[in-house]
């Protein structure tokens, strides 16, 4: 089995410096406030990751950990600088039944007033061969939609809090 890749991005109509500062000083709190969450713990939190499928909202509490923060002076694409946060998340309960994600959340300026958020991550579907089949049928779409929803929620929270 090989790791499956997720990639999504969002824009925030706020200056990069303010986004970078907010993520450096309080990423866990932002993630907590951006999602339906429980109690924050040190560098991790419990949040409800959610996705809407066929008109039904499905959610699962997950533990998110920020394992590393790095301010870069050379950044991807056209930007001169970026901030990268290494993240891990897994289901709070029954973790063996749900994929764990290892991801990088990257933020970099697009203009003086707009910042791009980019999430790239990998996960291994649980359940061996059956899990691989389920991932091909529907799991990857659920994982992609869940990651994108999380990033949308983070972008929305940053936009609101930095208004």
Structural notes for this entry:
- There is one protein chain.
- The protein has 163 residues and is α+β, with helices and mostly antiparallel strands.
- 33% of the residues lie in helices and 45% in strands.
- A hairpin with a 2-residue loop joins strand 2 (36-41) and strand 3.
- Helix 1 packs across helix 2 (128-161).
- The radius of gyration is 16 Å and the shape is elongated.
Helix content, binned percent? 25-40%
Q: Distance between termini?
A: 44 Å
Mean pLDDT: 80
Beta-strand content bin = 35-45%
Q: How many independent structural domains?
A: 1
Provide the CATH topology: Alpha-D-Glucose-1,6-Bisphosphate, Chain A, domain 4
Poorly predicted regions are 37-46
Q: How many helical stretches?
A: 2
CATH superfamily: START domain
What is the CATH C-level name? Answer: Alpha Beta
CATH architecture: 2-Layer Sandwich
Number of strands: 7
Main beta-sheet strand count, sense and barrel state: 7 strands, antiparallel
Q: What structural category characterises the helix and strand content?
A: alpha+beta
Q: Tell me the overall shape.
A: elongated
Task: Write down the secondary-structure element order.
Answer: EHEEEEEEH
Rg, alpha carbons: 16 Å
Order of strands across the widest beta sheet? 1-7-6-5-4-3-2
Oligomeric form: single chain
């Amino acid at each position: 089995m090989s790791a499956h890749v997720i990639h999504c991005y969002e824009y925030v109509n706020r200056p990069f410096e303010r986004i970078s500062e907010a993520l450096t000083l309080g990423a866990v709190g932002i993630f907590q406030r951006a999602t339906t969450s429980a109690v924050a713990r040190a560098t991790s939190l419990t949040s409800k990751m959610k996705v809407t499928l066929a008109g039904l909202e499905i959610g699962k509490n997950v533990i998110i950990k920020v394992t590393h923060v790095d301010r870069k002076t050379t950044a991807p694409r056209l930007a001169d600088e970026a901030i990268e946060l290494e993240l891990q998340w897994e289901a709070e309960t029954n973790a063996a039944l749900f994929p764990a994600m290892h991801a990088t959340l990257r933020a970099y300026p697009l203009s003086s007033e707009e910042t791009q958020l980019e999430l790239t991550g990998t996960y291994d579907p649980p359940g061996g061969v059956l899990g691989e089949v389920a991932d091909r049928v529907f799991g990857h779409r659920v994982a992609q939609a869940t990651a994108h929803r999380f990033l949308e929620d983070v972008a929305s929270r940053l936009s609101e809090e930095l208004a």
